[in-house]
Amino acid sequence: AGFKDSLSLFAGSQQSLLNTEPITLSISLGELKNMIGQEVARNDVVKILKKLGFEIAVNVEQESFNVKVPLFRHDIVNSHDICEEIVRIIGIDNIASTPLNFSEKNRLNKTYFDYKNALNLRRRAADNGFFESVHYVFDSLDELSELNFKPCKIKILNPINNELNTLRPALVNHLLSSSEKNIKNSKRSVRLFELGEVFDENANQGLNLGFVVSGLLKEPTLINGAKGEEANFYAFAAIVQNVIGKFELKPCHEITYLSPYEQAHLYQNGEKIGYIGRVDARVEAKRDLPKTYVCEIDFAKLKFEPVLAVPYSKFQSMTRDLSLIVPENFEAGRIYECIRGLNLKELKEFLPVDIYKDA
């Protein structure tokens, strides 16, 4: 009884208000056309959306709509949902089918062509009997100093070891070291090439292509009477030409680690692209190398002209001999420049055949 006396009853009500602003989405006629696949009239869009309970504000200049989504449409969150509502009312069967317009972007750029050209060079080098070698971009500062290379101004704080303590300015030292190791392993003929990064005195990066032939040009076989053919300047130059294409040789004498009597600069289309020559006898003796020839080329300066198919001439080719009397020490390159400067359209090729001298 005491419990009933302490019980009190109250009457009242509670109201919950949802304080939520409706979502406003912006969509244009162009976007609708791209999503649906065909154009829908502006008045039809407005009529459909209003009947579905949407509030619409039309921007006539920009051909766009600001659509206010009803609070009970929780499934409408972006412009694609609005497009879906329009398609649902129009009917998917009433929309004409259109093919997908897919156009691939042209991705053939300089990086791609450099990669393909480098790959072709490596394949052609392998076809001519060279083995590819890969070395670190670091080199020995002492060995480079012996070859009179200028040291890189950028110092390496934590070199791998004492023999790899600077950035390499050229490929030649690594190629000679690899040749030396192969010769000490009883290899009588060594042919190596490398396509690798180099760094100049200011640490500017470049890409070089290097070749080396040490010892015999060809191994002894039954075909050559079990006598190997020793490497020589012109045979080595011919092999390099098979890899990189035609070039011109102009004599030089400033490369100190090459023989002063067998060295030349390589030129393509009048631009110097590298050098070729025999390693100096003192360097060969110090490294226990036989007769060795090296070549190093700046990859960026190589000319890769596309191969064009042209019809054969209706006329037969004609060959003419031209004899010239020149001083004994006259350079053949001057004759080449003179003939090339004539720009004769009919002249396809010219080359020296023989040299005649008085007894």
From TrEMBL:
Residues 313-359 form the FDX-ACB domain. GO terms for biological process: phenylalanyl-tRNA aminoacylation. GO terms for cellular component: phenylalanine-tRNA ligase complex. It comes from the Bacteria. Its cofactor is Mg(2+). SMART domains: B5. The keyword Plastid does not apply. Residues 20-97 form the B5 domain. This is phenylalanine--tRNA ligase.
